[in-house]
Design a protein that fits this description.
seven-stranded parallel beta sheet; alpha/beta; 21 helices; Urease, subunit C, domain 1
């Protein structure tokens, strides 16, 4: 046996067939955080066939070099596993990149100006779509009405999603196209906002949006391919190599599969299929799929939605909203549906993940998960509650007791903290975004962004996790700082914990022998620099299966 083979064996390489050959790539002279508890920090790793062969000291790893091995010297830069966003809307991001971006607007007038500018170059009668307005960022935090928008853009139907995706603003042309009038009834799980005389104001909440969505021309397959491609490129740019894609229909999944077959999908997508009856019938019939197309697609989870969002007062609460005593929010799924789908998912080998934000919604989902697990016992179901934002203290220990994973988005806390107290009052805030309380109960937390609700940069959630501060490092000391994560926990939340929550831990989530060589090179060490410097960190390159899918051009720091 040659010297390089002996070294490879000593470093616990993946398999005999891999050990017998020199690596394709050696990454060296780096500070590599492996998220491997047995070898947490190394300075080199060897890769062959898209998978990691070995990690360890540079002196030993470089000795494995063969005549055709590429060696990448990173000059002391930081490497972490490819980051995983555990809750995204991938096609939504791609489409958002092609619509009017309303993020960061500070007034209704600014929104109108952006839409009116888009209308100038859009043929009359064609729909104008926009995303990410948030009235909580305006001086007047009341929900807007359509009048000024309708006057400014009368010749195009306009449909603008609120930042959380659980409400939308329409102009008069869009309401006319959807036949929404004062006599229109609120659908189950939705609300048409109305003026004092009963006339619709132009804002639709949750299921009421479907009244308009059904009349908007659907995107073509080519448009969906373009959106998916734009989204993957955007995510690679921020160091993301895997996502958990929440609530996806067959048309989008077909596009993902086609791109992955063609080798044009540089992302690992753990798909949560939309939980409607047609999707369930089709994918239950097909059965769970794992690691398709060289590990680029998993189709073995279901997404359901129990309630709305806090910002639009659609989150289902046990008690009325503190700033609107007339409502406790919205229930979007009939009683018993989560239990029935959960039991069937267990029988067929699927995971069930349910959106629940309010404390009533979280309690209801936990109750129905418990009933499903009683009917079909499973020791390793990994059912998830997506968001788990507001939890009654009595329900926090139930996650660990039932083996339910709270899949949370740290950046939601820093987006919502300015006004969450108005919605909930101070007492309920004690169970809001309660990461430490949940971790101490014995669960893990996969982290994410809910993009395009939040920005694509996963380091925003890393920073929020460890500081509970916004990108201006406010408030001093952090918002309810006792709920912070440690840096080790924050890194795990966007790597190995996210992988485990999707049954992908044997393939990704850490830099260990046998796993895919998905990794990110950073220009700062996020595990050691001051928290206020984290968001000044740049992704230098992103690698999927040992191949670069993004390289940063030399330039000054790009704001988040």
């Amino acid at each position: 046996m040659t010297r390089s083979h002996l070294i490879a064996a000593a470093l616990c390489v993946a398999a005999p067939t891999v050990r017998a050959q020199a690596p394709d790539l050696i990454v060296t002279n780096a500070r590599i955080y492996t998220v491997d508890q047995n070898r947490p920090v190394v300075d080199a790793m060897a890769i062959r066939g898209g998978r990691i062969v070995a990690t360890g000291p540079a002196r030993l790893i470089t000795a494995m070099k063969g005549s055709s091995t590429q060696v990448v010297d990173l000059d002391g830069k930081t490497v972490i596993p490819g980051m995983i966003d555990a809750h995204v809307h991938l096609m939504g991001l791609g489409q958002a990149l092609q619509t009017v971006d309303l993020r960061g607007t500070t007034s209704y007038d600014e929104i109108i100006a952006r839409v009116a500018e888009r209308a100038k170059g859009t043929p009359a009668g064609r729909w104008i779509m926009g995303v990410a307005w948030d009235q909580n960022d305006w001086a007047d935090t009341r929900l807007p009405t359509h009048d000024k928008l309708s006057a400014a853009v009368p010749g195009h139907p306009v449909f603008l999603f609120r930042v959380d995706g659980h409400a939308a603003l329409l102009n008069a042309a869009a309401m006319k196209a959807a036949s929404i009038t004062a006599s229109s009834k609120d659908p189950f799980g939705g609300r048409i906002e109305r003026a004092a005389n009963g006339a619709p104001t132009g804002v639709l909440v949750d299921a009421a949006m479907s009244l308009v969505e059904k009349v908007i021309p659907p995107p073509s397959t080519d448009e969906l391919r373009a959106a998916a491609t734009a989204a993957t490129q955007e995510l690679n740019r921020w160091g993301l190599t895997s996502v958990h894609d929440a609530g996806v229909g067959k048309e989008s999944i077909d596009v993902f599969e086609a791109l992955a077959k063609e080798g044009k999908f540089p992302l690992r997508n753990y798909v949560m299929i939309a939980g409607d009856s047609a999707n369930l019938a089709y994918y239950f019939g097909r059965g769970p799929q794992s690691g398709l197309y060289d590990g680029h697609l998993w189709i073995k989870a279901i997404k359901m939605v129990a309630d709305g969002a806090l910002g639009s007062r659609g989150a289902s609460l046990l008690e009325p909203y503190s700033d609107d005593a007339k409502t406790t929010g919205l229930t979007l799924t009939p009683a018993g549906a989560v239990r029935r789908v959960g039991a069937e998912a267990l029988r067929r080998g699927f995971q069930l993940n349910v959106h629940a934000i309010g404390d009533r919604a979280n309690r209801t989902v936990l109750n129905e998960f418990e009933a499903a697990l009683s009917a079909v016992p499973s020791a390793d179901h990994r059912f998830r509650i997506e968001h788990a934002q507001i939890i009654h203290p009595d329900d926090i220990p139930r996650f660990a007791q039932l083996g339910v994973i709270p899949s949370m988005q740290a950046s939601h806390q820093t987006s919502d903290m300015y006004w969450a107290g108005n919605r909930l009052g101070q007492q309920r805030l004690l169970g809001a975004y309660a990461w430490r309380s949940l971790l101490n109960s014995g669960v893990i937390i996969p982290n994410g962004s809910d993009l395009p609700v939040e920005k694509s940069n996963p380091l925003i959630s890393f920073h929020a996790s460890i500081a509970r501060q916004d990108d201006n490092n406010w408030p001093v000391g952090g918002w309810f700082p006792e709920q912070r994560m440690t840096r080790d926990e924050a890194l795990k939340s966007m790597t190995i914990w996210a992988a485990w929550s999707a049954f992908m831990e044997k393939e990704v989530g850490s830099l260990e022998a046998g796993k895919y060589a998905d990794f990110v090179v950073l220009d700062q060490d996020i595990m050691r620099i001051a928290p206020e410097l984290v968001l000044q960190t740049n992704v230098l390159s992103t690698w999927v299966a040992g191949k670069p899918v993004y390289r940063r051009e030399a330039r000054t720091h790009v704001p988040n």
